[in-house]
Amino acid sequence: MDLLTVLPSSFGYVIFTYLYSWIMLGYLAVKVGTARKKYDVKYPAMYSDKEPVFNCIQRAHQNTLEVYPQWLVFQTIAALVYPLSASVLGAIWVTSRFSYAWGYYTGDPAKRMNGVYGYIGLFGVILLSISIALQLLGVF
């Protein structure tokens, strides 16, 4: 079975959404690495007792990594049936992680809420996944 004949052609947008998320994760990781050097936080320490801005930079990356696996699962489920909608929702979520991080990077944790709009993307793919599950079960 050829994967290109099984997936809808618009699944290409989903792949680009995954690539966009990979770029976002790389960016956040580089920012942590740069901050480690700037604030002299040596491995394996995850946080600094002296530099709260480093902790904010680290948390922006760590929090993204904490939610990323769940987003990937729901993004993939939603994308198998609704590739264009899932791609738009995924792009919203990924973009929001930049806004979240940039707000956090200020050193004021409250500014991480600049990325709160990402819940539209996250909850959107969760709702699409629930819809698909119910369709598969014959509920509607």
Secondary-structure blueprint:
Layout lengths: L2 H4 L4 H29 L12 H30 L1 H22 L13 H19 L4
Helix pairs in contact: 2-3, 2-4, 3-4, 3-5, 4-5
Alpha-carbon distance between the two ends: 29 Å
Q: Which structural category fits the helices and strands?
A: mainly alpha
The CATH architecture would be Up-down Bundle
Radius of gyration over all CA atoms, rounded: 18 Å
Count of helical stretches: 5
CATH superfamily (homologous) name? Membrane associated eicosanoid/glutathione metabolism-like domain
Question: What keyword list fits this structure?
Answer:
Four Helix Bundle (Hemerythrin (Met), subunit A); mainly alpha; 140 residues
Can you walk through the features of this model?
It is a single chain. With 140 residues, the protein is mostly helical. It has a single domain (10-137), classed as Four Helix Bundle (Hemerythrin (Met), subunit A) (Up-down Bundle). Helix content is 74%, strand content 0%. It contains five helices and no strands. The protein has helices at residues 3-6, 11-39, 52-81, 83-104, 118-136. It starts with a helix and ends with a helix. The model has no long low-confidence stretch (mean pLDDT 96). InterPro entries: MAPEG (IPR050997), MAPEG-like_dom_sf (IPR023352), Membr-assoc_MAPEG (IPR001129). Its EC number is 4.4.1.20. GO terms for molecular function: glutathione peroxidase activity; glutathione transferase activity; leukotriene-C4 synthase activity. It is a multi-pass membrane protein. Belongs to the MAPEG family.
